[in-house]
Amino acid sequence: MKATSFLSFWVSVLLLPSCGHSLPELPGFDATAWRRDPYACNNQRAKQLPVLQQHKELLYGTRADDIDALFGRPDEEELSEQTEKLYFYYLEPGTQCEPSHQRSTANKLVLRFGPLGTVTEVLYERPLPQEAPAG
């Protein structure tokens, strides 16, 4: 019995790190401000979008637990076929700010997790507006 527990421990130690990476710091991203604005009802998340967009490639391959630690629990979550799941984080106020927290058409950050529980896609419900080039 002890040998089985010992073996299970080492298998966990060796295999789990290969299933994703821990989230590196996103320079300039204020995670505390993001987490304090559930459903984006205080319109504070929108201020974080330029930094998030600049560093979104760092999110790929990140485990769900690390995403939870950075962004907080998602405003909405969906399970899809083939053991994938989606996290939704609102980016602007909308009907989700009403007491019933109804699903809204407000823009959302969408994180898709693959079967290994790591981020495979970083999307926006509606594309972000592109800034006009200076000149």
Give a topology summary.
Layout: H1 2-15, H2 31-35, H3 49-54, H4 64-71, E1 76-80, E2 84-90, E3 108-113, E4 119-124
Antiparallel strand pairs: 1-2, 2-3, 3-4
Could you describe the 3D structure shown?
- It is a single chain.
- This protein has 135 residues and is an alpha+beta fold.
- The protein contains four helices and four strands.
- It has a single domain, classed as 2-Layer Sandwich (Beta-lactamase Inhibitory Protein, Chain:B, domain 1).
- Helices cover 24% and strands 18% of the residues.
- The longest helix is centred in the N-terminal third of the chain and has 14 residues, at 2-15.
- The radius of gyration is 18 Å and the shape is globular.
Please give the count of helices: 4
What is the average per-residue confidence, as pLDDT, rounded to a whole number?
83
Q: Roughly what percent helix? A: 10-25%
Low-confidence stretches: 5-18
Number of domains: 1
Beta-strand portion reads: 15-25%
How many angstroms does the end-to-end distance come to? 71 Å
With strands numbered from the N-terminus, the spatial order across the biggest sheet is 1-2-3-4
Q: Give the topology string: H per helix, E per strand.
A: HHHHEEEE
Taken from the alpha-carbon principal axes, the silhouette is globular
Can you summarize the main beta sheet? 4 strands, antiparallel
- Radius of gyration (CA) equals 18 Å
How many strand segments?
4
CATH topology: Beta-lactamase Inhibitory Protein, Chain:B, domain 1
Structural class: alpha+beta
CATH architecture descriptor text: 2-Layer Sandwich
Level-1 CATH class name: Alpha Beta
